[in-house]
Amino acid sequence: MKTIITFILMLVSMALLDMSTDVWTCVLLKAFASFFFVLTGFFALRERKSGSSYSKIILTGLVFGMIGDVFMDLSNLPDGGPYFIIGLVTFALGHVFYLIAFFKKSRFHWFNLIPTIIAVPAVLFLVPATGVFEFNPQLLFYAVIVYVFVLSFMMGKSFSFTEFKENPSFVRLTIIGAVLFAISDVILFFTLFFTPLSRLPKHGTTQFIFHVLNLLTYYVGQGLIALSLKKEP
Question: How far apart are CA 29 and CA 20, in angstroms?
Fold first, then answer.
């Protein structure tokens, strides 16, 4: 029951975040919303009454996600560029923890690499070729490529959980959570670097729609991964 309450509180905090425009209010609300998906994972662990190493590693990944959220919002401050890089690294570390946990739970399959084989070349070659993406500084482009590799591999590795046919709830929660997380980052990628979109007024309708979609897919994704700990086989 506690996991459902914290999941709902996470969504409420996210909704309030959608309505706020003040930077420091956004930082505070995002910290609250992210704290609630960590709390959801913690209570899921408690409700199982036994914490496996898999669950503890996933919980660590959730904590890194929460920290990354705070730094990402701090990057909206004047001269907040360094916070964005710190947030990106923190998120990547969160994905690494998810990957470690996924590898502890299931073996490697060739199809785990399919999202990476598609995503990394697309960003590495197609994005520069279009001429409509802007990275400032340019070094950020290479940091994004590394992040895309880790994110896409994490999502691809979650597909291995289809082997747990006796526990469909765990499989669905984990895979849908990982896919939604990836979708949220694709939306954020276009919001930040696709110039026809990134140069639009920050508080305009289009930017607002993308912002809502980004938050919704991200928080539901993280929340589902947290809830999956309750169903871990």
Answer: 9
Tokens representing 157?
């590795």
Q: 0.90 cut: is pTM over it?
A: yes
pLDDT at 233: 75
- The DSSP secondary-structure symbol of 230 reads G
Bigger pLDDT: 27 or 226? 226
Which residues are within 8 A (CB) of 167 and not within 5 positions of it... i.e. 6 or more apart? 231, 233
Backbone angles phi, psi at 194, to 5 degrees: -85, 105
Write down the residue that tokens 């408690």 correspond to: 46
How far is 171 from 178, CA to CA, in rounded Å? 11
Residue 40 Cα distances to 34, 105, 150, 213, angstroms = 10, 21, 24, 22
CB 113 within 8 A of CB 157: no
At 117-152, the pLDDT tens digits run 999 999 999 999 998 999 988 888 999 999 999 999
Which residues are within 8 A (CB) of 115 and not within 5 positions of it... i.e. 6 or more apart? 152, 153, 155, 156, 182
